[in-house]
Design brief:
The structure is a single chain. The chain is 88% helix and 0% strand. By secondary structure, the chain is mostly helical. Helix 1 packs across helix 3, helix 1 crosses helix 4 and helix 3 packs antiparallel against helix 4. The protein is elongated and about 55 Å long.
Length: 88
């Protein structure tokens, strides 16, 4: 196995668990794509550190359940900002 990508998967997993981070947030911090983060923490991590994988999976499941709420809040903030900028 590739030791670099294995250690990256572990670091990503630890970051996600510690910060309750989304895949998108982890990707931004580590400077890699969301797809790479997802592949590392759901595929590689499951093989190399199953206990950490379980913790990551719990965080990701919570994030998935809440994503519609985050999306709604982001949309609300966007339109509020547009209204303020347009003077309404």
């Amino acid at each position: 196995m590739d030791t670099f990508s294995d250690s990256r998967a572990i670091k990503l997993g630890e970051y996600i668990v510690k910060n309750k981070a989304t895949v998108r947030a982890a990707a931004q911090v580590f400077g890699i794509s969301k797809s790479t983060v997802h592949t590392d923490v759901t595929g590689k991590l499951k093989i190399i550190q199953p206990a950490l994988y379980v913790q990551v999976r719990q965080v990701l499941d919570v994030n998935k359940a809440q994503r519609h709420i985050r999306g709604g809040l982001a949309t609300k903030a966007k339109y509020k900002k547009e209204a303020v900028n347009s003077g309404n």
